[in-house]
Structure formats: C-alpha cells, structure tokens
Amino acid sequence: MLATTVRSAAALIVLAAATASSVGSASAATVAVGPVGQTGQLSAWGGHVVFSQRDPATSRWRLMDASAVGIRALPVPAQATPITADAGPDAHGRPAAVFTRCSGTGAANTCRIHELSLARAHAKPHLVGALARPGYSDGAPSIWKGRIAFGRVLTGVPGTRIAALYVQRRPGARALLRLGRGTVPQCGAVPCGRIAQPEQLDLGPSGLAVTWFLRGGDAIPQDAEELWRIPLDGRPGTLLDTAVMGECAMGGALSFVSLASPRLDGLRVDYLRLAGDCWPTRSAFVETGPSPLRQRRHPVGSGELAYGMARDGHRWWWVRGAAHPPSGTDPWTACVDAPCTLMMSTGVRFQRVRVRHPPAPPVIDE
Known about the structure:
Elements: H1 9-18, E1 29-36, E2 43-45, E3 48-55, E4 60-67, E5 70-73, E6 85-89, E7 95-103, E8 110-117, E9 126-127, E10 136-144, E11 147-154, E12 160-162, E13 164-168, E14 176-179, E15 194-203, E16 207-216, E17 223-231, E18 238-245, E19 256-265, E20 268-277, E21 279-288, E22 294-299, E23 304-312, E24 315-322, H2 334-337, E25 340-346, E26 351-354
Parallel strand pairs: 12-15
Antiparallel strand pairs: 1-25, 2-3, 3-4, 4-5, 6-7, 7-8, 8-9, 10-11, 11-13, 13-14, 15-16, 16-17, 17-18, 19-20, 20-21, 21-22, 22-26, 23-24, 24-25
C-alpha cells in the first residue's frame, strides 16, 4: 500500500514561508504539499488535485487526492495502468472526480467511467451506468456541473483505436452529443494500424480542451500530439498547438515535445509543455488562445522540471523534480530515480512568445 502523507494547513503555511519561489517570479508564492513518486497526469478543481501514482512495491497505480490538508489515497482499486482522472464540479457544484477503471488487455481492454465525490471524506465511487455501452471502451473523462465528456473507441479491433468525443446533453443523461475531435491519420490504399484518441480532456461551460494522441498511417513518425479547443455544439475545434516525438541523440537540440494537462478557461487553454532530447530538459506552463498565434509561457526554474501540472483558478499545482538523465531506459521515470514533490504556486507570471504560424496537423503532406 502507498503511504498516505497528511500535512496540516498550519504546517503548509510555515513551509511556504521557507520555500523559495521555484517558478521564477518574485511575486510567486510556492508551497510544498508533499512528496510524490511516479505520477500520471494531474487535474484540479475546487481546491483538490487528483492524479494516479505508481506503487513501486506492486507496480500498480492508485488514485490520489491532494488538497490543503495534504495527500490521501482515494478508495479506488489499484490497477496495472495509470488511472485517467479529472476533477470538476458535480451536478450540485461540489468537487468530484471522474475516472476510468479498465479490465482486459490489448484489443479486448475495456474501460468504464466512474464518479467519486471529493467533498465527502468517506464517499464511495460508483459506475456512471448511463454511459456504459457493450462493445465500446470509454476513457479520458471530464466533468463540469454533472455533465461528463469522454472519448469512446470500438473494442476488439487489433492495432486500431479511433476515438469519437461525446458529452452528455445534461447531467445523468444517456443521450449524448457527438463533438469535433483531433486529426485522424489516413492509411491510403493499404490498410494500416492507427491510433487517434484523447489523452486528457477538460470540460467547461461551453467548450472542451483536449490533448489528442495520434500514431500510424500518415501521422508523422514516431508519435504526435495535438492541443485542441472544441465547442460543445458539434462544430470543428481550433488546433492550438502540436508536438512530435522523434529519434533522440541525432544532433538536434530537441527530439521531442510533449503536451499535458489541458485546462479550459473561456477561449484560453492552459497546459504543460515538456521538451528535451532523449529525456526532458525543459518545461513551462503555457497559456494559449483564443488564437493559436497568441501564446504566453512561464519556464520552470533552472535545474528542475515540472513533470505534471494542473491549474485551479489562481493556483498552479505541479510536480517538481530534478532535471537530469534518468538511470533507466524510460525518460519519464524521473520521480522514481529521485524524489519529486507536489507543489502549489500562486502569482505566476507569464511572458509573451512570438508564434509565427498557426499549427498544422502533424501528418505527412504528400
């Protein structure tokens, strides 16, 4: 079992006074919430941040909740893969988490969406039965005032996972509205395996922020990601940023860029940008929108990285770790090789970045 770290609000205030500003702004206040290990993506709302964390003793993932009183393990069964989760308001405006539980392997892997109140200490999770459909797997859920958005793929198709995006027409409804989505790779005349699916969603009153993963077909090798802002009326979305994973150690400054933790704020999307060659060497909090040509960044301080990030109003939650090569072959296990800390910062300042051209889908243009 993972140890549960609890710190009182008073202790956090004392710690905040002793913590230097790690995000590089003279006006920023930064609080160390507690130690964390290898984590999945973060999501925050209403003073709570949820994320999955790997237990090194069992190699299984638990769902965690951090707030002003510390970090606790949620009453959700551990699973072999990271648990995709989102924090947001339930139908009554109270903090809640929606997450996936998965069973099976390969093409038979099936995930279902569950909901758990974060406002009640002893709440139990429950299956969102209105969304379950035989033959389909659902993932990357997000909740806003009780409505849930998610990605859905057909199960049983080896090598291919093409997702559609849906949102409930109202809280608790079985009726769904199909939304726009990211780029779907094309095969041409020869059949091929393809993946096009959401990695993380953030639902708001009138839109959806999406990080979208694509591979195969005419997608640019190796892997590619897109950041989208999608309206809730079924119209196509706006492509705000793209990222591509390439071969490392080939002489360039960067071999990959990764986008994570989208957070919708009106027509703006906030997210984490990680980049490097072979392993992460730089990270930044990013704000973009309403146009993809309008972008502001806040680089994380020298010698350390943000390995995860989530925004909740004026608070920026992030996983701080050292910027150094990992000892293993996986560049994303930095928090296994050396301790990482969940931080909370306010007063973060951004600088305008010049973007010359709007992003294009990361596919090969023949």
